[in-house]
Write a structure and sequence with these properties.
- With 244 residues, the chain is mostly helical.
- It is 76% helix and 3% strand.
- The chain contains 7 helices and 3 strands; from the N terminus they run E-E-E-H-H-H-H-H-H-H.
- A 3-stranded antiparallel β-sheet has the order 1-2-3.
- A hairpin with a 2-residue loop joins strand 2 and strand 3.
- The radius of gyration is 25 Å and the shape is globular.
- The protein starts with a strand and ends with a helix.
Length: 244
């Protein structure tokens, strides 16, 4: 999921880059086949299995949907741990930085699309959530050279609400629980939109600050370069006068 599902996913619901506070040495030394990456790979591998379980027998068999829910729950749990393990034990790799957010989006996107395909969830809900998640991912690359926007409380709440709501829709619930899941999904959609707008605001501010800092550095460099010839000429003149 997004960001951490426990991703999200920053003020925007986005999750900070895994291991963002670690040194480059840690990134280079971490093995590809570490526990954090293995959990991420397992989450990716669960996606096709989850889809098969959810759509088995037309997608309306309560038993198979329970199996699908179990696969979805395992994927969400691995998302809680892989990033934490990578940061805590210096297991950060370039693969993990790329694969972790992909795995988050893959399991959530697969669940939303399948639920809409089965008619359990309106397509506009799936569209709003996926548009936000993909858009924020692209925006993260847009500002990454200027800095990383950390995960906020709102982003974490969004991730929790999305995971809970989708999990409830995967199960074949009826009666009051079916009504409850509607409201949980409504909360998830609101948080998705609000945190997405907040992330955009933070991204724009961060980019402006980064560009301003770059311009200031260029101007300072230009001033230093312009001063060097003057200093050189003065030094040469002094040397000539001393020789005279």
């Amino acid at each position: 999921m997004t960001g951490v599902p426990a991703s999200a996913a920053g003020g925007s619901g986005s999750t900070p880059v895994r291991g963002g506070k670690l040194g480059a040495a840690a990134v280079n030394q971490a093995s590809l086949w570490n526990i954090a990456n293995l959990l991420t790979m397992a989450r990716l591998a669960l996606v096709p299995g989850f889809v098969v379980l959810l759509l088995h027998n037309g997608g309306y068999d309560p038993a198979w949907r329970s199996f699908a829910w179990a696969a979805f729950a395992v994927a969400m749990i691995t998302d809680l741990f892989d990033g934490h393990l990578a940061r805590t034990y210096n297991l950060v790799t370039d693969f993990g930085k790329i694969a972790d957010p992909i795995a988050d989006k893959a399991i959530m996107g697969a669940a939303l699309i399948c639920l809409s395909y089965l008619g359990d969830l309106p397509w506009w809900v799936t569209g709003v959530i996926l548009f936000r998640e993909l858009g924020i991912t692209l925006m993260r690359f847009w500002v990454i050279r200027h800095g990383v926007i950390p995960a906020s409380r709102g982003g974490k709440m969004k991730t929790l609400a999305q995971g809970t709501a989708v999990g409830m829709y995967v199960l074949a619930l009826t009666g009051p629980l079916a009504t409850l899941r509607f409201w949980v999904m409504a909360v998830a959609v609101v948080l998705t939109v609000v945190t997405g707008l907040d992330y955009i605001r933070q991204a724009v501010v961060l980019r402006r600050q980064g560009l301003a800092a770059e311009r200031a550095a260029e101007e300072q460099q230009g001033a230093s370069d312009g001063a060097d010839p003057v200093a050189g000429a003065a030094g040469a003149r002094g040397a000539a006068e001393a020789e005279w």
